[in-house]
Amino acid sequence: MTTLLRNCWYVAVSSKDLKPKKIIHKKILGEPILIGRKKNGQVFAMRDICPHRGIPLSYGSLDQDDITCRYHGWKFNTNNGKCKEIPSLTKYDNLDVERIQVLTYPCEEVQGNIWIYFINTNKSQSKSTDIPSVPTIPDFGKLSPGITETMQFSCNIDHAIIGLMDPAHGPYIHDAWWWRSGPRKFRVKEKHYEPVSQGFRLVSYNMPVSARPYKILGKDVSIEIIFQLPGVRTEILKGDRYSACLLTCITPIDEYSCEIFQSVYWTIPWAAVFKPLLSLLTRQFLAQDRDAIIQQQEGLMYDPSLMLIDDADTQAKWYFRLKQEYQRSQENNIPFVNPLDPKILRWRS
Fold first, then answer.
1. Do the beta carbons of residue 273 and residue 32 sit within 8 Å?
2. Are 229 and 326 in contact (CB under 8 A)?
3. Is the pTM of this model over 0.85?
4. Cβ of 320: how many Cβ atoms within 10 Å?
5. What is the C-alpha separation between 265 and 143, in angstroms, rounded?
6. Which of 101, 184, 229, 249 could lock onto 261 through a cystine, CB 3.0 to 4.6 A?
7. Pairing state of beta strands 147-153 and 257-266?
8. Do 33 and 26 meet the contact criterion of CB atoms below 8 Å apart?
């Protein structure tokens, strides 16, 4: 069974899917989470269970900064989770209602996605100053994604991550006329990788042969791919005319399923007219990976011995090394040190 990383930021929902004065229920890392947006646009997250009788608070209502439970009307402040009112109490009751509290989570909205920080519940509560910044896409400022698609994968987060970062599955899983067509032409790929703060990056290089969609960006299209724990992959493309970015974030629902958030950003001023088509193609692209994962589960149910080979699977090996070192740093309360070294990887694809 995999171990889900904590003390990390996870995407909970796309900004476009949470309107003002609305609340939604999500299950993340096996926990029930209520996510809401106040009238002023501020987002918040808290445990989706009323401490009185256990009914999910998401069945209740949001009023200004308070969540009211639909069962008995208990009211909780969404900023700190403290109880503000218990309607059934009388003047003869001696109960300090503020001592009753619902767990709240650090929650931020950045570049069109709403992120939640999950503190290690086995450790003491981290101070706000200990919480790192939300992952952002460099050079894209406050730009929101042109499109965002979400899809559930019926597998643990490890298989989803190593499946999506796998450089050798493309010709077989993503063989489509609108992406690449004609007979498969395999070439030896040689890429330079180096460590970053909590992961690794494919060092930017100019693509000698671009797939059809990349040519929109102009000539001399460069690509840089960054992967960081717990499951954030950023693919940045820059041409001599425009830039684009594909942000893929993987959030575990529980040990056996996860949710993929894929956001596409661009600086192309006229691309908005193609949003419906781009959304369709993005869903198809994700669905191809999802379908392969579903088929993979048929074999994994027998708990077979699996193998990872060099160099095509080296990135998967790096992911497990990074995860192991991160877990060790958390358990021993020591700083995380990236165990990877710069390396050139080669494979045929």
1. no
2. yes
3. yes
4. 13
5. 8
6. 249
7. antiparallel
8. yes
Q: Give me the residues paired with residue 27 across strands.
A: 32
Report residue 285 CA to chain centroid gap: 17
In this structure, are residues 284 and 176 in contact, taking their beta carbons and an 8 Å threshold?
yes
Give the N- to C-terminal CA distance of the chain in Å, as an integer.
Answer: 31
- DSSP-based helix, strand, coil % in the chain, nearest 5: 25, 35, 45
What does DSSP say about strands 43-47 and 31-37: parallel, antiparallel, or unpaired?
A: antiparallel
- Dihedral sign (CA 299, 300, 302, 303): positive
In angstroms, the Cα distances linking 301 to 127, 155, 305 are: 41, 11, 11
Which residue segments constitute the domains of the chain, with CATH numbers given? Answer: 8-130 (2.102.10.10), 147-348 (3.30.530.20)
Sign of the CA dihedral with 181 first, then 182, 183, and 185 last: negative
Extract the tokens encoding 342: 């710069």
Strand order, beta sheet including 31-37: 22-28, 31-37, 43-47, 104-105
Read out DSSP for 276-323? HHHHHHHHHHHHHHHHHHHHHHHHHTT-------TTTTHHHHHHHHHH
- What phi and psi, each to the nearest 5 degrees, are found at residue 159? -65, -35
Which residues does 191 contact at the CB level (< 8 Å), separation at least 6? 202, 203, 205, 344, 345, 346
CB-based contact 103:81 (threshold 8 Å): yes
> What gap in Å lies between CA 116 and CA 323, rounded to an integer?
19
